[in-house]
Amino acid sequence: MEDVLRPIAVIGGSIVVTLILVRLADRALIRIDNAHPETPLWGLLRRCRMPLQVVLCTALLRGSYDETRLELVEAHATGIGRALTLVLIAATAWLAVRASAAIVESSYSRYASGARDAARVRRVRTQVTLIQRVVTAVVIVVAAASMLLTFPEMQAVGTSVLASAGLLGIVAGVAAQSTLGNLFAGLQIAFGDMVRIGDTVVVDGEWGTVEEITLTFLTVRTWDERRITMPVSYFTSKPFENWSRGGAQMTGTVFFHLDHTAPMEKMRQRLHEILQDCQDWDGRSWSLVVTDSTPTTIEVRALVTARDADTLWSVRCQVREQMVEWLQAEHAYALPRISTTTAPDGRAPARRDQEPDLRKPGG
């Protein structure tokens, strides 16, 4: 009877103690979160319940599995102990990643709620995202190394591995040159404030918004919902346009090709009326001037402003549409046209088949 009750008591007791401790910790986090709603950390830490349960239960079993005194356990004590150790290391790494993510997210949320500069918020978001990825990578590497060192064979070859570390480092550096370059480029982007998540950029002629930045690649979401994935080293080695750097406000232009008789003063008045009714116009500046002239048309440039790139696009489209509609309805003569009237002396232009043949005498 004791052979049955002892393993049940050991295993069941570990599970019960784990559930009680995790439950108490969860209730404590709920009370602290309710008492301090301005700090989201305590609510975010509740995401660590599952890895915490695995860590506690595995630790309890690792320290008490010998007490079961089962023949199977005694015959494979080394293997069971090593397996529990591996699970404990992996669960600890899982818990560390969850806890660090909660801390980073809480810090960013508190900063974003109190900051007024949208560009600075995007900068901090980019930095904390990359820092979290670095922490996760370090934790995974340390956990993997710790798991490997639990095997005696790995400890035995440790000396030879250290002796050849210099050569392996050179070989790995040459083989992973591109990867390491992207890694350092990602850190340079994070702390050099070159590009941030949410910035509007133009890369290789494609206009879009930076959606994700990792240690090795960057994703740009274009206006038509496509995703362009590029290595981060591109942004440290080649020029690109960042429309969000230095402030989100932008100035845009709308060009019209019109006849020389276009009423410029009335067009200026109409442009001002259109902008007054446009909610996306920020009211900073506007103008309408003739920028070029050809024998058949003139080029008219309307200048408008908006608070960011997205609203600027809407303002430009609205100005273009309403101005063309107004010209068609009120001043159709101002639209470009091809003249087909007769010559001033009343004679129609000679057709090609009526032109004199210069090759004939008297032609």
Can you put this structure into words, describing what you see?
- This protein is an alpha+beta fold and 363 residues long.
- Helix content is 57%, strand content 15%.
- The strands form two sheets. A five-stranded antiparallel beta sheet has the order 4-3-2-1-5. A three-stranded antiparallel beta sheet has the order 6-8-7, covered by helices on one side.
- The longest helix has 38 residues.
- The C terminus is likely disordered.
Compose a concise summary of this entry:
This protein has 363 residues and is α+β, with helices and mostly antiparallel strands.
Q: Catalogue the unreliable spans.
A: 161-165, 170-177, 348-363
Q: Based on helices, strands and strand pairing, what is the structural class?
A: alpha+beta
Distance between termini?
A: 131 Å
Total count of helical runs of at least 4 residues: 13
Order of helices and strands: HHHHHHHHHHEEEEHEEHEEH
Mean pLDDT: 77
Helicity, in percent?
55-70%
| Strand order of the biggest β-sheet | 4-3-2-1-5
Percent of residues in β-strands? 15-25%
Question: Total strand count, please?
Answer: 8
Give the biggest sheet: 5 strands, antiparallel
Radius of gyration from the CA trace?
36 Å
Backbone shape = elongated
Descriptors:
363 residues; alpha+beta; three-stranded antiparallel β-sheet; 13 helices; elongated; disordered C terminus
Task: List strands and helices in order, with pairings.
Blueprint: H1 2-35, H2 41-44, H3 49-64, H4 71-75, H5 77-114, H6 118-149, H7 152-156, H8 158-163, H9 165-175, H10 177-192, E1 200-203, E2 206-213, E3 217-222, E4 227-231, H11 234-237, E5 241-242, E6 250-258, H12 264-276, E7 281-293, E8 298-306, H13 309-330
Antiparallel strand pairs: 1-2, 1-5, 2-3, 3-4, 6-8, 7-8
